[in-house]
Amino acid sequence: MPPKLDDTLASILSSRSSQGRLRRLTIPSATSVDFSSNSYLSLSSNPDVKTAYVSFILPHLQSSSPEAGFGLGSGGSRLLDGNSAFTEDLEKRIAEFHGADAGLLFNSGFEANTGLFACVPQKGDVIVYDELIHASVHDGMRLSRAQRMPFAHNKVYDSATTSPTNGKSKYPSLDSLLKSLTEDAQVSAGKKNIFIAAEGVYSMDGDLAPLKEIVECVEKRLPQGNGYVIVDEAHSTGIYGRQGRGLVCQLGLEDRIWARVHTFGKAMGCSGAIVLCSSTTRSYLINYARSFIYTTAMAFPSLASIRTTYDFLAQGHADSLVQNLQSLIRHMHTLLTQIIERHGPSPELFRINPEAPQSPILPLLTSRARNLAQYCQERGFTVRPIVAPTVPAGQDRVRVCLHAGNTAEEVEGLCKAVEEWVTGAVKSKL
Questions:
Q1: Structural domains for the chain
Q2: Aminotransferase class I/classII large domain: from which residue to which, for each copy (predicted)?
């Protein structure tokens, strides 16, 4: 008798568990200090934001007018019954805020990336991507008809240094890869398109992409204009650029980046995403992006939360939160550096990026990530171990995310717990 499906699945899960890779759902403790979520500006719990949100939706809730009222659901996909004047106005507002021609809302950053990368690159085109690009981009590329080729993380030229956290890569630099592609006469003549995918801030390493250098390299190697840079600003929205417009805006690259994906589930404190692009690309996505076409549109309560947080940014209310966040980042890095100086742990046991952090994401690299995370959790601090295959083998870490809502005392408490663990781990090695 053949094995039952559940038996087969249980065997696969058992194998993953024996490798220490089994994923489980957990419920965050209400009493633990959050150093794990991506809510960098703490907007999801900000009293002013919540008050503004309620004030915004209340008139719509109480209205009996079809134009002013709203339902708990959208009623269908955008192409059928789920579209509204409010949705289209919100897209225009967001696009204008970020200095883009147009924008198209998606239910999540995952759906935005899969939809964009699956349908835009055509047969014969090539997608060149940073080796640490998000899983959603990988899934979109798998659905695409284009060829895909990785380049070493954040390495634009061969002379560039490797990432302190990611180590030496087996992939070429972006410049070397583009140079090899231009040996194809159709690429050099501009008859094949090359799409270059990068993130503004990388979610596991916390480092920023060298976007200016990437753009300059693409323009140099592909002077026919057939190089199209796509930037996922998921972890840079809200905390970089004037009033949180993102890294592309901070660097003044709005007119040199072909498309941007901004998501709202991180620093913005709500949910959903938008692809910023040309009006022609927006029309193309409406026609061919399956993750847009075949899904129920976001309902008014979700759209209203996006509108509320963007108003909060545009009015400058988040500026002080960003400043406080930057102060906490510097404070924690100083404390962690001092721990290493005092105890001298081996790099395998515990290390951090010695350079000043570029984002609120601080990876604590250690071969004992699960043990360190558990130690901190037991002392009231929510942190998560990140292990292979989510990160490359040998790059396990405890991922610490700082928030504007954290305090200096909480940061010091977490660092004290880390130091206690390091002290014990160093002694056990003696």
A1: 24-41+319-429 (3.90.1150.10), 73-314 (3.40.640.10)
A2: 33-418
Q: How far apart, in whole angstroms, are the C-alpha atoms of residue 331 and residue 16? A: 38
pLDDT tens digits along 173-228: 999 999 999 999 999 999 999 999 999 999 999 999 999 999 999 999 999 999 99
Collapse the DSSP code of 413 into the 3-class scheme (helix H, G, I; strand E, B; otherwise coil) and give the result.
helix
Per-residue model confidence (pLDDT) at position 167: 64
Q: Are 260 and 248 in contact (CB under 8 A)?
A: yes
**Among 101, 131, 99, which Cα is nearest to 247's?**
99
Residue 209 DSSP class: P
Rounded to the nearest 10 degrees, the angle between the axes of helix 300-314 and helix 47-62 is: 130
Per-residue confidence at 425, pLDDT binned at 50, 70, 90?
A: confident
Q: What is the pTM of this model?
A: 0.94
CA atoms within 13 A on the CB side of 184: 15
By three-state DSSP, how is residue 311 classified?
helix
pLDDT at 66 over 60: no
Specify the pairing of strand 194-199 against strand 126-130: parallel
As a whole number of angstroms, the longest Cα–Cα distance in the chain is: 74
